[in-house]
Amino acid sequence: KYCDTGEEGILNTLWQRYENAIDKAEKKKSLQIFVLHFIQAFKDWEPHRIDQSVDRRSVSDDTVIGCSGGHPSEVILILVQEISHLTSFVTESSSCPESSANLSEQSTDLGLSTEVLPVLECFTIVTRSVHNCRVFSYYGGVQKVTALLKAAVVKLKTLTSLLATDEQLSNRTVENMRMMQKILVHIVTIISNFMDLEPAATRISRVVNSTDHTPSNNLATVTPNAIRRFVSDRNWQQKAIVSVMEAGGVNWLVELLRVIRRLNLKDQWTDLSLHFITLYALRSTISENTRAQNHFRSIGGLEVLLDGLGLPSSKFSVSKHSFVPSDERSDILQLQILSLEILREAVFGNVNNLQFLCENGRIHKFANSICWPAFMFQEFHQQKFLDPEVPNWKLDRQSTGNSPTLESFPSPVDILNTTEWNEYSVKLSKALCSFLLPPNEIRYCPGSTVTKISLPISLAYWEQCARWIIKILSTVFPCIKACASETELPNHIRILSNILQHYMLSTFKKVLISAPVLLKSFREEGLWDLIFSEKIFYFGSSLECIHQIVGETETQTDHFTDAAESTGYKSNLPDVNILQSEAISFLEFAATLNENTNNLPECSALLSALEHCTNGPGLVVTILKSFHVILKLATEQTLVSFKSLDVLTRVLKVACLQAQELRKAHPSDDFRGNGSQSNNVQMDSLDERIKNALTCVELAFNLFKEYVTISDLGRMIILHNANCIGCLFDLFQEENLRKHVLEQVLALYRLPPSSAQDHTAKLQLCSKYLETFTRAKEHEKNFAEMSIDLLVTLREIILIDRAYYQNLFRNGECFLHIVSLLNGTFDEAVGEQLVLNVLQTLTSLLAENDESKAAFRMLVGVGYQTLQSLLLDFCKWLPSRKLLDALLGMLVDGTFEINEKTTIKNEDVIILFLNVLQKSSTSLQHYGLVVLQQLLKGSITNRTYCFKAGLLSFLLDWFSVEEWEDTVIKIAELIQIIGGHSISGKDIRKMFALLRGEKISVKQKHSSLLLTSLSHMLKEKGPEAFFEFSGHDSGIEVKSPVQWPYSKGLSFCCWLRVESFPENGMMGLFSFFTENGKGCLAMLGKNTLVYELSP
């Protein structure tokens, strides 16, 4: 009961006066006075907590003094009875069979009555208390207020029906509809308070006493995210909801939404506060209540909410030239968000309700409905170019301080404040994501760790909801893309698109970690194709447009901070925005899930993205890093995917494209990833894009190395992949990778050929290797260094299996490619290194291989005349000791050691060596002639080779022109040695011609030397006939038909002179066999003579 002091004392007196009144009119007047004072006294009243149970079946007899926790029960009883009177009056007015004019007049009388609104406003105060609600329910208040709701909705519906017959309604009829909506605001508020005792911060009853448009900042407080009042008994809310449902309250709330929608479609004024509080009341009914959700669907509530998401009225159409106040625009956007959130409450966890949204084209309807504000802005954006009466947009920095906005003008939908638009975009994104996750789990935290959550909902719902949202996004983003001109989106659409994308990626990631089994659904619905499409991933960067709009804004709300972060401000790479980084991160996360036994779809999507964005090296770097992570964390699955998709070839192609772009951008510069610069170009001077391109090339090659290192069959797969081999050699042109590329090539050559296919693959590898010489010479200024690296590696390859790779490279025409390297102009230092490496490589290719020597002789001529010409042209400076040693090594098929006894193995090098020696300095000539003299003195074989090669003739020609005395003496000694072994008539005639010649006759000493040499030749007693065997596949073989055994006997006599025994095997002496295989043969070992007789 009321206390006796203060405002309550006055109310107590007024209540006593009411109770003591006898006359009906006086009693009515006393009640009206009491009601008005009650409203004034308790307008801002908030009840204190009551420790009693709120589900007691009867009113307690205990009396509490004061209204801290509630109001007297007798007062509530009288007010409940007044509702019944009000219901009767409204029902009678709605069913009166009078004309429309009379009905309108009665309605006006009803609206002007002072009995209606004060009583209802009293109940908006009374229902703030748990105690009062308990008393209200006990006295049948729920049924009575629901009956009043029904009567009021029918009344408003009847007034709305007048619009079908009379398009020009009277002002009185319009006022009646306004007044009826105001009454409904109070009624719905009472029901809402009864079901959900929301705090004063979210109560709309405070602002409904004005007939003017409700301010936007007050409507904004009616949100589903408000914190509810603490109620000691949690069963109360469920019981309250059940009582409202059983009374039919939910049905009439849905019907009220239909009537409001009908008024909006007819461009009639509607009280937005009524729309808000009706939606909020419905939310209280269906939230976390499966029974209520099913009932809501059965009465058409889902369809009504879905309709409410769309364009509220045709007055928002671009074709209409009506002005919509900015506050109303903001409220309508909030109304859409609230409708979306309540639709989520009606669907969340309910598979049947969600299935309803998936049927009969509702997905497209839903997608179009949630995006109508953004598309409306775009329509107006287009209209401004077509309609000269529409003023141009311009920035207005006076209306909101530092926050840029667009100038207001009488247009259907004006551009909003940037902060408001970002807040709207964030709320819309969160509301859509909340279909998958609870709102408190939806937040945008880039870089944060995603944790697993547990929800009491079925996996079937999660799967169906994920598919549904992906289908919605697949509808929304193509529409957004259609708004663009080439690659430019309107700023407001870009903001909405980016924020929506960020939140959806974050939500999908959290869903996937909580339910990995949904990965299959993601794939089947084409989520990867959607994310990595031109509609999302590649459609420009969000950084530019956001910077233009909000770049100068210093202070923003929490939601706007999220939005700003989601637009790319924190990206470390110039051509990678945060959206792209998040998309790659999400795909990487999916590919490395423990439950993902086949990540081929994820690798395929990432690979397609890589190939699509080759013009952005920063983005390529990000994707390649992701590939590294995937290969590391999910090795087994990724190796299989890499093989199926031919990932390495495609990755190396991208790296080659990056390298080509670098060379095009800086054709005169030599970029080095390891810091060495031939042109002193420092890495610090390169811009960020070039650094990223270099990093991209290195990452791609490192991925290749990692793959072949991990996989047992990786290198064999690469060996048989011609395209991959080609890309590998393309990267050889990058100096920072050159050494590593050659290491990988060498590893491929080390693979043992186990089949004909392997041999063919290695032959192709040889051909590609040799083609690199030509490509380097044609396109690179520093091709000499590249060629040297290739030659060094080629010699290492020969060492793996000399005979096999000599033949393999010979079949690949290696000699032509190698000799062609000498056809150019070089500086002395680099040129000499190239020549030495060419000769050393030729030595390796020719050593101990007669077929290769024959092939090389056929190419460059007997005595290697072509090579001789190239070397002589190349050696415009004086040859060095290293060059002579290289030729000597070529002469003996290996490394020449002056202190060891050596046999000449390649007679074609003899004259080549002498020609170079003749061009050398005097000291080197002396060195070369001494070495040659040493070779001839100790070996008949060497003297034989030199004679056959024409050494004597060359020495005589040199003798005739040489000026240096010491050199002439050495030449004379060589003439004596070789002539003593064998001399031809031609050489004898040349010697006598020299003695008769004028030059030699002038130099008396030269004549004496030549005569002395000739004298010693005559004293030499060389063998009249002899066979010279090399020891390898040599000996005497009689091929003509012989008879065995010979009747008269057969003898074979010879002297043997062995200069050196082979390390392995034996030397053949002779082989005499008949056609039927009878005969004999003899072979000689180091300590053994083998004679074999076949009878």
From TrEMBL:
SUPFAM superfamilies per record: ARM repeat
Domain Neurobeachin alpha-solenoid region: 599-1018
Signal peptide per UniProt: none
Domain of life: Eukaryota
InterPro entries: ARM-like, ARM-type_fold, BEACH_Domain, Neurobeachin_a-sol
Gene3D superfamilies recorded: Leucine-rich Repeat Variant
PANTHER family tied to this protein: BEACH DOMAIN-CONTAINING PROTEIN (PTHR13743:SF112), BEIGE/BEACH-RELATED (PTHR13743)
Protein name: Neurobeachin alpha-solenoid region domain-containing protein
Organism of provenance: Aegilops tauschii subsp. strangulata (Goatgrass)
